[in-house]
């Protein structure tokens, strides 16, 4: 077996970042993915000239990408055109009030004061709380492995001091009196698959990320970042094989455990490797790809709590570039309920009649997302995953739910259906088949406190030597910063390749 050969399962951003780091360590890397383009959930499709970014839309910690590129001897900004946004996003409520998040701290304080003058002091305290959790939760725990129990025990006093047992929503309620501000500073876990009323308050660190590093958009969408990453892998001499689905991670017994030897594709082809990194969903990896599990058994995975599902309607319009001037790049449209809706999604598993929507309109920043004069949108609604009792039958409900989403959208972009030029929809059913996501979830295992850090599936697998995990389902979690950081953790765990692995990179077919 060639121990200098590393296989990465999945060309999502976590897998591509892992491949880049392994290539920088001298490994000959092969990336395998069942889709036709790299990016995983961060890929894109084009329909009638409209480019639909299928998943993540926001880059919040660009230095993670710059450091990744630099560690590979390259310049991120030479490969990717990243634009800072101002405003970051707008939040709207049914009563007509709104909150605009911006990079300027004084502007943010003015927005808080406009809605609730008595909450300005609480906002200042909240920012300090957020920064403290950033340094501990992101820069400390999030960028190193947490696979040893002692690593957890050592930080328990800090967890206690920072009240990690308190939820994000509960912490926001301690700092803000106005219900709208409580929502505005507690909804962020939904963008990584977490219930704001139950995930640990460590995740208020997102407010510091936004304040310190801004909110950015990659021209060409996140798919452009994925393609740039794949190109780095190729320039390192690695291979990115699309349309190649892994059926099994192969392993042999060794010293009372198992050691990986490579993978078998669904075509029957066997690829040998001394190191395998899975960027497939952790649940899929342990339930379907690896045999003989001892800890992450199907029963344990079935008892885990999973993130919500997503209903996403992607649509393009013609002749609308000058219409709806008050609708920017990112808009959050709230329904009449907050906690009640979240409970229906995460706890009750019920598809509610009301909803809250995230509306993405990239064409206001990036004209290439749509034909000239047109617009590209997606409207995302959090919904229950398919693992609840009596799961939603999307074959029956999809059209009816689409009409409900359209009614909500009409309050923001009136008349949009008269201009439709392209559309497609992804429901949890499509997430299950396209991404092999357990229960059709959008973000893998939910980031509750007892499913985070040491309690989360580890980056270095205890099930087989030579097997590592990256991506949303492992430490530190979902979101672009999380999956890219999981590859950084991998880079600290894996030794440099044997010297024989260092070969001259193959030239790209077209540059």
TrEMBL record:
Coiled coil: none annotated. This is Phytoene dehydrogenase. Residues 13-487 form the Amine oxidase domain. Gene3D superfamilies: FAD/NAD(P)-binding domain. The keyword Flavoprotein applies. Pathway: Carotenoid biosynthesis. It comes from Palleronia caenipelagi. Its cofactor is FAD. One of its GO terms (biological process) is carotenoid biosynthetic process. Keywords: Carotenoid biosynthesis, FAD, Flavoprotein, Oxidoreductase. Belongs to the carotenoid/retinoid oxidoreductase family. One of its GO terms (molecular function) is oxidoreductase activity, acting on the CH-CH group of donors. The keyword Lipid biosynthesis does not apply. InterPro entries: Amino_oxidase, Carotenoid/retinoid_OxRdtase, FAD/NAD-bd_sf, Phytoene_DH_bac_CS.
């Amino acid at each position: 077996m060639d121990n200098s050969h590393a296989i990465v399962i999945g060309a999502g951003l976590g897998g591509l970042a892992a491949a880049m780091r392994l290539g920088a360590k001298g490994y000959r890397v092969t990336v395998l993915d069942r889709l036709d383009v790299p990016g995983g959930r961060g890929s894109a499709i084009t329909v009638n000239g409209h480019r639909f970014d299928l998943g993540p839309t926001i880059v919040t910690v660009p230095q993670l990408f710059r450091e990744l590129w630099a560690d590979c001897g390259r310049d991120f900004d030479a490969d990717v055109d990243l634009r800072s946004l101002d405003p970051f996003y707008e939040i709207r409520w049914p009563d007509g009030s709104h909150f605009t998040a911006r990079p300027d701290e004084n502007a943010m304080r003015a927005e808080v004061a406009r809605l609730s003058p008595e909450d300005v002091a609480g906002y200042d305290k909240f920012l300090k709380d957020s920064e403290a959790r950033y340094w501990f939760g992101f820069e400390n725990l999030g960028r190193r492995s947490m696979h040893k129990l002692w690593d957890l025990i050592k930080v328990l006093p800090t967890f206690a001091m920072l009240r990690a047992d308190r939820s994000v929503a509960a912490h926001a309620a301690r700092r803000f009196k106005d219900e709208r501000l409580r929502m505005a500073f507690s909804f962020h876990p939904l963008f990584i698959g977490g219930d704001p009323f139950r995930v640990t308050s460590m995740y208020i660190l997102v407010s510091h990320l936004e304040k310190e590093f801004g909110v950015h958009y990659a021209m060409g969408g996140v798919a452009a970042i994925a393609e740039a990453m794949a190109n780095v892998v190729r320039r390192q001499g690695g291979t990115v094989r699309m349309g190649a689905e892994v059926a099994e991670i192969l392993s042999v017994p060794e010293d009372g455990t198992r050691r990986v030897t490579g993978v078998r594709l669904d075509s029957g082809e066997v690829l040998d490797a001394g190191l395998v990194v899975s960027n497939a969903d952790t649940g899929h990896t342990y339930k379907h790809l690896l045999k003989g599990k001892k800890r992450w058994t199907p029963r344990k995975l079935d008892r885990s709590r999973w993130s919500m599902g997503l209903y996403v309607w992607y649509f393009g319009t013609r002749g609308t570039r000058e219409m709806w001037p008050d609708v920017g790049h990112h808009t959050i449209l709230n329904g009449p309920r907050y906690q009640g809706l979240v409970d229906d999604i995460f706890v009750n598993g019920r598809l509610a009649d009301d909803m809250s929507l995230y509306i993405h309109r990239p064409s206001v920043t990036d004209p290439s997302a749509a034909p000239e004069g047109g617009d590209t949108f997606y409207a995302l609604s959090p919904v229950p995953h398919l693992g609840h009792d009596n799961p939603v039958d999307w074959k029956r409900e999809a059209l009816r739910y689409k009409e409900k989403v359209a009614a909500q959208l009409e309050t923001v972009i009136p008349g949009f259906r008269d201009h439709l030029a392209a559309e497609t929809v992804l429901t949890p059913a499509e997430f299950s088949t396209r991404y092999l996501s357990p229960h059709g979830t959008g973000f893998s295992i939910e980031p509750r406190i007892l499913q985070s850090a040491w309690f989360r599936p580890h980056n270095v697998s205890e099930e087989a030597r030579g097997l590592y995990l990256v991506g949303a389902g492992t430490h530190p979690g979902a979101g672009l910063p999380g999956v890219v950081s999981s590859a950084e953790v991998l880079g600290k765990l894996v030794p440099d390749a044997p010297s024989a692995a260092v070969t001259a990179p193959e030239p790209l077919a077209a540059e």
